[in-house]
Amino acid sequence: MSDRNGSFDGVHRRNLARVLGLVHLEGPLSRARLTALTGLNRSTIAALAGELVDFGLVEERAPDPTNRVGRPSPVIAPHPALVAVAVNPEVDAVTLAAVGLGGRIAARRRIDVDGLVSPDEVARLTADTIDGWRSHELPDARFAGVGLAVPGLVRAADGLVRFAPHLEWRDAPVRAFVEQATGLPAAVGNDASLGAIAEHLFGAGRGVDDLVYLNGGASGIGGGLIVHGRPVGGTSGYAGEFGQNRPGIAASVDRRAEGGVLEDEVSRTRLLEAVGLRSADEPTLAAAIRDALAADGERGAAIADELDRQRRILATALANAVNVLNPSLVILGGFLATLADQDPEALRAAVAAQAMPAAAEDVDLVVAALGEDRLMIGAAEAAFASLLADPLAAAHPAAVE
Fold this sequence. Notes:
The protein has about 400 residues and is α/β, with parallel strands linked by helices.
């Protein structure tokens, strides 16, 4: 049937999506719990769960032990073999992960690179990694698709990377390259926007309707917005580019890049230089900073000064975001989380001092709960989007005809 709104077919598709979505977001749920959450009757839930099992999207497990009288209800859980491939190309590495429904990381690979990777190189690395997983770590995996979290402007209409300045990509059809190399459907989004979605669904922003997320990576600072519970992309999908704003710097001595933007001043590269590293993943950089601060001497003092300088500038940017958007939560990820973790109370106080008092009263500032998994989970969410929206169409493409 072509009518997917009011017809039986449309209602059936929505119910399948609803059940799968609940299992995705909440984890394994008993049929009884699904009945309560959806308001559908038990026989309908049993039939829907059976279809999702047949599609290979969920599995039915033995009931959890219970002291209740009567027959225990079977548990519906995401099928562990179903994964999406998440890819985050950066200036120093390409990170990939196999991510299951519910945000479970099944495998991870970081490929350090000496130079900038091109879109077709990312496609080749993705295909090679999938082949390796199929041969070794994940021989039974079924790959639903590929999601790419790219540090740049990604056009929402078609996933074209209009401009990723640090990767030097312009109008890059990376989605087409990846689909051709892997034979899998692909989706592309801005890395910080996808990080915001991940934190909203599974992390520090779970259950929060209005939040601002700032991501600090090797390519700079990006952001994502959740307003009234929904991601905000703007007209073309480019919203959230906080790193390109001109920072307010109260003391001229704090300026390092004359006329620079926020990500020129609040910079992962500057932190790496301060601790004497050329490249590092997030946990390694955070550990190096902690070790340096713990050591006595001029080097530790210099690193402390750089952290303080970057926090002062970041606080002004965050206060501006609080004034404009009035969120209830600001989440910091990547090296920005490391900045915040070194002195969280000082950062909160600096933001509150520069924000409107009424707006500052209602906002909290936290670090990303998903850590280095946030971009992987966000990219996987993009890859799973069509499956979650219409499981029947994804399992049987001819059903949409």
